[in-house]
Amino acid sequence: GQASAPDYLTGLNPEQREAVETVDGPVLVLAGAGTGKTRVLTTRIAHILATNRAYPSQILAVTFTNKAAREMKERIGHLVGGAVEGMPWLGTFHSIGVKLLRRHAELVGLSSDFTILDTDDVVRLIKQIIQAEGLDDKRWPAKQFAQMIDGWKNKGLDPAQIPEGDARAFANGKGRELYAAYQARLKTLNACDFGDLLLHPIRMFKANPDVLKEYHQRFKYVLVDEYQDTNTAQYMWLRLLAQRPQGVPQNVCCVGDDDQSIYGWRGAEVDNILRFEKDFPGAKVIKLERNYRSTEHILGAAGYLIAHNEGRLGKTLFTDRVDPNDEKVVVHAAWDSEEEARAVGEEIEQLQRNQHPLNNMAILVRASFQMREFEDRFVTLGLNYRVIGGPRFYERMEIRDAMAYFRLICQPADDLAFERIVNTPKRGLGDTTIRALHDYARARDIPMLAAASDIIETDELKPKARKALFDVVMMFRRWGELLENTPHTELAEQVLEESGYTDMWKNDKSAEAPGRLDNLKELVRSMEAFESLRGFLEHVSLVMDVEQNENMDAVSIMTLHSAKGLEFETVFLPGWEEGLFPHQRALDEGGRSGLEEERRLAYVGITRAKRRCHIWFVSNRRIHGLWQSTMPSRFLDELPTTHVEVAEAETSYGGYGRNPYGQSRFDKQEPFQNNYTTPGWKRAQANKTDATRDNWGNRSGHSVERIGYGESGPKARTIDGE
Ligand code: ATP
Ligand code: MG
C-alpha cells in the first residue's frame, strides 16, 4: 500500500507508478513532453535495484546522449541512497555498441583494439576506394557516397541487402561493389565506422546465437529513453537483445513521444513506436497525461501548435499547476538579429536582477549561425554563457579557418595561422613541402610566410609545390596591400572567395556543408560592427578568452536538436521567421513531412520551458550580403491567443521608426490543417489599442479590426475570413 511504499515511489502518479512497477513484460510509455517519462525510467531502474531483481550490471539502459546517461546514473544513486556502483550498460546506443564490439571483435573479423574512424577518415578511405576502381572522384564524390553508406547503415543494410535502385544510383551501378569494398577495407585496417558500432553487434548476434543467449541471460531488464528517435538499425539491435523465446517475459520498457521525433533526417523511424506492440506481444501501453514541467500557458501554446500536424498518434496533456500569475508565452518582434540579441540580453539581465540564476535560462536556436550574435552580445555585457552540444561559434572549424586567413593578413608572422590554411583548401602542399618550409624558416629564424616568399625563388621545392606556394604568397601579398584601403568586410569576402575556401564548402556534399557556409556569411556580417579587421580580430580573441567553466552560473545556448529532454525555467526562442524556422532546407527536401518535423522541433522548443517562454522574430535578416525583409514564421500563426501575447513595443531597445512586422504575409499563408477556429496570435495584436501600435511606429487611425502589417494600415487585410 501507499503507506509502506518506499520513498522513491510515493511522489509518482498512478500511471507513472504502474510504469515503474510493471517490471515483468514489455512496457511502452507513450506520452507528451514533461510528463515524467525520463523520471519513470530512472525510478524504474531504482526500483529494480532496490527490490533486488537485478544487479546494476544486469540492466541495459539506453539514453540519447552521454550527458543524459551521467545524469541518470546520478539520480538513480539519489533514489536508492548511496552510489550505484557501476551501471556498465547505461549509455548511448553507440557507447554500448563499442563495448559489445570490444568484447567480441573477433567474431566479426576484427581484433579488440580496432579503431573507430571519424567522418574525415571515412571520406578519405572511400575516396581511395573510388579511385582504386578507376572512377573519377570528382564525378562521384566520396562525401556523397559516405552519406549513402551512412543511410544504408541506419537502415541496417549490408551490401547484399541494399535496394537495386540505390546500388545503381552511384558510380554507374557500382554502388554495391564499392560498399562491399569499403567494408573489406575496414576489416583489413582493423577499423570500423559509427554505423558499424551497431551493425557489427547485430551481425555478431545473428551469427552466434549462443553469444546472444549469454546476453539474454545477462540483461534481465532493458530500458530505452527517447524511443521515438531510434532508427531501424537501433531498433533491430534492441529487438535482438530484448526479445525472448516464447513464455519468457520480455522485460523491455521504452519511453517516447511521437511529437518529439526530430531526427527523421538522420534515419529515425517514428514507426518503431507502432511496431513495438507487434514485436512485443502483450505489451502494456501506458499513457501519461499530467505534465509536471510547464505552466498551463506553455502547455497550451505547445499543444495548439502541434495539433497542426497530421501524422500524430494524438495525446492530451494537462497540468494542475494553474496559477493566475503565470505569464503567457510572449512573442516579440525585433528589427534585426542584433536588436534581437540585445533585447534578449536585457531580459536576461532583468531576470538576473530579480534573483533568477542564469543556469535556469536557455536560448534555443534553429541554426548554429544564430549563436554568434548572442555570444558577442553576452561577451559585451559580461554575461556568462555556455554552448551545449557543439563548439562555440568562433570555435567552429570553418570559422577558425577563415580567421586564420584574416590573422595572417594582419600578422604575417602568425605561423599557426599559416600552417592551418596553407593547404586548406587542398593545393597540393603536402607534409613534405610544409616540413621543408618549416626547416627553412627555422634555419633563418623568420616566419613561415616570409620563408615561403623566399623559398619560391630557390629550387628547393618540386615545381608543382613551388607553383602552388607561389600562388599562396601572391594572394597574401595582394590582400596585404588591400588591408589599409579596402573596407574590411569586402576584403574578408574577397579572401574567402579568392582563396577557394568558400568553393571548398560549396563543392562539399556533406550534410554539414550548407550550415558551414551560413556560418561563414554570419562571420563576415559580424565584422560590420567593427572599424577594421584588426579591431575585429581583437574582439574575437576577447570572446575566446572568456572561460567556459562547468560550475559557473551561465546561460545555456544550444540548438533545438540538442535541447531534447532538457528543461529550464526560462526559454528564449529566437529567429522564428519563414525560411529559418521552418527552415527552408527542411521544406525543400522534406515537403510536408519536412514541415511537420520542423513543427515538432518547435514543440520541443516550447516544452523545454517551465515558467517562461519568449519567442522572437526579426523583420530583417541579411542574406547573401543583402538585407532582406523576412516574414514571421507560420508557426506564430499557429499559437493560440489564450496562452500567447504579443510584447508591447519595447522602446528601450526599440525605436524602430516603423512597424517592425514589415510587410503583409498573408499571401503565402497556408490554410489551417486542423479543426481549430481561433485565429492565431494575430488576434491578440489586433485587439491592442492604437496607442500600442503607435509605439511600433505605425500610423494610427485605421481600424483595430485590421492588422497593420503593411507600413500603411489601409493595405492590411483582416484576419478573419481569409
Ligand atoms: P521530455 O519529453 O521533455 O523528455 P519527460 O516526459 O521525460 O519529458 P521528465 O523530464 O521525466 O519528463 O519530467 C519533467 C519534470 O517533471 C521533471 O522536472 C521531473 O522531475 C518532474 N516530474 C515528473 N514526474 C513527477 C511527479 N510525479 N511529481 C513531481 N514532479 C515530477
Ligand atoms: Mg525525457
Automatic annotation (TrEMBL):
All residue ranges annotated as the UvrD-like helicase C-terminal domain in the record: 296-565
Coiled-coil region list: none
Residues reported in the UniProt entry to bind ATP: 31-38
Signal sequence extent: none
Oxidoreductase found in the keyword field: no
Catalytic reactions of this protein: ATP + H2O = ADP + phosphate + H(+); Couples ATP hydrolysis with the unwinding of duplex DNA by translocating in the 3'-5' direction
Residue ranges of every copy of the UvrD-like helicase ATP-binding domain listed in the record: 10-295
Gene Ontology MF term list: helicase activity
Enzyme class: isomerase
Enzyme Commission number: 5.6.2.4
Nucleotide-binding listed as a keyword: yes
Top-level taxon: Bacteria
Region Disordered: start-end pairs: 691-712
Keyword terms: ATP-binding, DNA-binding, Helicase, Hydrolase, Isomerase, Nucleotide-binding
Classification via InterPro entries: DExx_box_DNA_helicase_dom_sf, DNA_helicase_UvrD-like_C, DNA_helicase_UvrD/REP, P-loop_NTPase, UvrD-like_ATP-bd
Similarity comment: Belongs to the helicase family. UvrD subfamily.
Protein name according to UniProt: DNA 3'-5' helicase
The organism of origin for this protein: Rhizobium wuzhouense
